[in-house]
């Protein structure tokens, strides 16, 4: 597959993931698909990835991903994106806050034979939870006198 085809596949995947579109994801992900860092209770496979997208979509029903940059090198596609959404449903034990969130993420996705076989995504989870008010206000340390 060429770079443009791989880029389009990743754009489709990103949009389907944000929408929690299980049917579309089922067609885009290879049966041997793997991803990193699943949340507790989810497996790092195709089934877990679809469940994770639905978990996020349920908590943030207007979730959208804006791709800022894409770098394609053969079967590997690196993406920098910004996810935005309003917290309308329970999310990992946090009751809905109705807060609008914005979270950065970087993904390296591997494509083979027109399917996505791996997704390594790192996102600012700390920043997301802070936006939801999950952490107490942090105070600046008081300088110590000697």
Can you give a write-up of this model?
The model has no long low-confidence stretch (mean pLDDT 93). Strands 1-5-4-3-2 form a five-stranded mixed sheet. The protein contains four helices and five strands. Strand 2 (64-73) and strand 3 form a beta hairpin. The termini are far apart. It is of the alpha+beta class. It is globular. The protein has one domain (3-131): Roll (Nuclear Transport Factor 2, Chain: A), CATH 3.10.450.50. Helix 1 runs antiparallel to helix 2 (22-28).
Indicate the percent of residues in helices. 25-40%
| Uncertain parts | none
Beta-strand segment tally: 5
Strand fraction: 25-35%
Shape verdict: globular
Assign the CATH architecture: Roll
Span between N and C termini? Answer: 65 Å
| Text of the CATH class | Alpha Beta
**How many strands, what sense, and barrel or not for the largest sheet?**
5 strands, mixed
Average pLDDT, all residues: 93
- For this structure, the CATH topology is Nuclear Transport Factor 2, Chain: A
| Class of secondary structure makeup | alpha+beta
Rg, Cα atoms, Å = 17 Å
Number of domains: 1
Number of helix segments?
A: 4
Largest sheet: spatial strand order: 1-5-4-3-2
User: Which series of helices and strands comes N to C?
Assistant: HHEHEEEEH
